[in-house]
User: Which sequence fits this backbone?
């Protein structure tokens, strides 16, 4: 399988600290009485694309949401175990959660631009951080839009409403909004499932280029997509991490029967 940027294949079961963007240690998570994530331990490599696959309801969104503590918003949620971002325990009581969410950006299935101009969408987070210099904001908006492969399409209408953009453009705008904050990790939760196939391919190519900027984590229930874009793939089943290895191995020679059953479509 040809990836846009070839690089040596790492053994994700044995990453060094320097190679690790996120480390999950014995994570268990409950929503009320429901044990949604069970004994998850893994390391996610820096500057690579890691995909999470598995049946609907297996815990993919919950797991990636734990990486920027989005589950904290649900009162019935509790968890045990640790998650380290570049060695820092993100569940520590002194963790600054707003800063964490800029370092670990998130893009959802439905593009959710704010009801404001293209420019204001992209500069929103920076202005929230207190950046006021016009020049600095202009530069940040331009470079984030370029990184999200949207600049050429919008540079002449930056001050028009984001609502006029197509779905694929809105999704790239939301990616630009996250990139403007220079995240270490970008979480993409089924980012193309609301988009048409051509727009999907466009976003997949964009992801390959973004690896230089940050670590990418993508949730997808589209196995072809995982095989196409991701360097590493983690298969979850009923809240457990069943198999996690480089994507070529996972999709061609899976070790576990459950993985094989899933990738060959024996269950949906
Ligand atoms: N906020 C929540 N409150 C209660 N249960 C939830 C909540 N979010 C997810 N769940 C449950 O946790 C399980 C995993 O959900 P999710 O992580 O969304 O799965 P996936 O993304 O793999 O489809 C499901 O059984 C789901 O119903
Ligand atoms: Mg989900």
Assistant:
């Amino acid at each position: 399988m040809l990836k846009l940027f070839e690089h040596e294949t790492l053994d994700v079961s044995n990453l060094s600290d320097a190679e690790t963007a996120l480390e999950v240690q014995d994570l268990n998570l409950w929503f009320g009485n429901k044990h949604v994530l069970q004994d998850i331990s893994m390391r996610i490599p820096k500057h690579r694309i890691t995909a999470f696959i598995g049946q609907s309801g297996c815990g993919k969104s919950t797991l990636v949401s734990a990486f920027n503590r989005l589950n904290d918003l649900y009162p019935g949620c509790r968890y045990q175990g640790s998650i380290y971002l570049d060695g820092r325990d993100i569940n520590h009581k002194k963790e600054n959660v707003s800063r964490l969410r800029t370092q670990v950006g998130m893009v959802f299935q439905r593009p959710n631009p704010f009801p404001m101009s293209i420019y204001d969408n992209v500069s929103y987070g920076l202005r929230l951080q207190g950046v006021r210099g016009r020049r600095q904001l202009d530069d940040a908006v331009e470079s984030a839009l370029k990184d999200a492969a949207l600049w050429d399409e919008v540079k002449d209408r930056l001050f028009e409403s984001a609502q006029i953009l197509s779905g694929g453009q809105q999704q790239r705008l939301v990616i630009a909004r996250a990139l403007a904050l220079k995240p270490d990790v970008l979480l993409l939760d089924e980012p193309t499932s609301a988009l048409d196939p051509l727009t999907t391919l466009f976003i997949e190519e964009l992801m390959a280029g973004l690896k230089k900027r940050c670590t990418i984590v993508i949730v997808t229930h589209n196995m072809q997509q995982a095989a196409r874009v991701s360097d590493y793939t983690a298969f979850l089943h009923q809240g457990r991490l069943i198999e996690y290895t480089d994507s070529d191995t996972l999709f061609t020679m899976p070790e576990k029967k459950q993985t094989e059953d899933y990738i060959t479509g024996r269950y949906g």
